[in-house]
Amino acid sequence: MSHSPNIVTVTAANFHTIVIEGSYQRPVLVDFWADWCAPCRMLMPILSKLAEQYGGRFLLAKVDTEAEQALAVQFGIRSLPTVQLFRDGQAIDQFMGALPEHQVREFLDRHIPRASDGLLQQAKAAMSGGDLAAARALIDRARTEDPDNKRLPLMEIQFLASSGEIAKALEAIDTLPLEFVKDPEVAALRSRLQFARVIEGAPSESELNDRLQADPRDSEARYQLAAHQVLRGDYEGALEHLLELVKRDRTYGDDAGRKGMLAVFDLLGSDNALVARYRSRMMSILY
């Protein structure tokens, strides 16, 4: 039995305390194994090594499924080894089989905060507060201390956007690794950048409102006004204008109204109530 504080054997008696409750404090990686399972014996030293190398950023919990068959049934374990990651009381991801070390690292890095993540969060807060010099220093420090942090390129793009270099930021976001393609944060950032580009050199909101009052068919004014509203957080107002653009002028900007609505949906996320409501309204117009 390991004497490491980062590795523990769990049973039905302590599973809830160590895994479920413990996962609110730090991620818990549960290794469901058995002594007769050769792949389990291959994977176990890899997991133990990583538990030490990650220095307590996750807890490795080992479950002997021969001794704890009820736990294996409870968590739907059908093949060994099965490794599940728990966070905030729930199993949020898993893998099966004896993966090589680099693949296990990739699995862990998708879910487990790195030491430099705190610096990047501070940089993000500094950008939000307009302190670009502090943000630059924090990003540079994170790069020096942890150059392998995969969130660094995304933070660099956010810095470009905060610095007003929208075109460069949009170019950079298209060069992100494939693993970012489905990242909701990347989709949201891309949407913000697209709307920021729309209002570069555009009139103020008050001027655009005046233009729409004078001519409700002014598609450019409506679209630019929606972009302003998105960037200051008035998503419902923006969606109303974009929906009206879908109704009035599908030819403007190569269907900019519909594409703009989809960009707002990416920004808000699929679980947002506004997304459900306006997606339904958009579909009723289109079909």
Automatic annotation (TrEMBL):
Enumerate the UniProt keywords alphabetically.
Disulfide bond, Electron transport, Redox-active center, Transport
- Per its UniProt record, what InterPro entries does this chain match? Thioredoxin, Thioredoxin-like_sf, Thioredoxin_CS, Thioredoxin_domain, TPR-like_helical_dom_sf, TPR_rpt
Q: Enumerate the Gene Ontology biological process terms.
A: response to stress
The coiled-coil segments of this chain are none
For whether the record's keyword set contains Kinase, the answer is: no
Drop me one GO molecular function for this one: protein-disulfide reductase activity
This entry carries the following GO cellular component terms, namely: cytoplasm
Annotated Thioredoxin domain residues = 6-113
What Gene3D superfamilies does the record point to?
A: Glutaredoxin, Tetratricopeptide repeat domain
Q: Which family does it belong to?
A: Belongs to the thioredoxin family.
Official protein name in the record: Thioredoxin
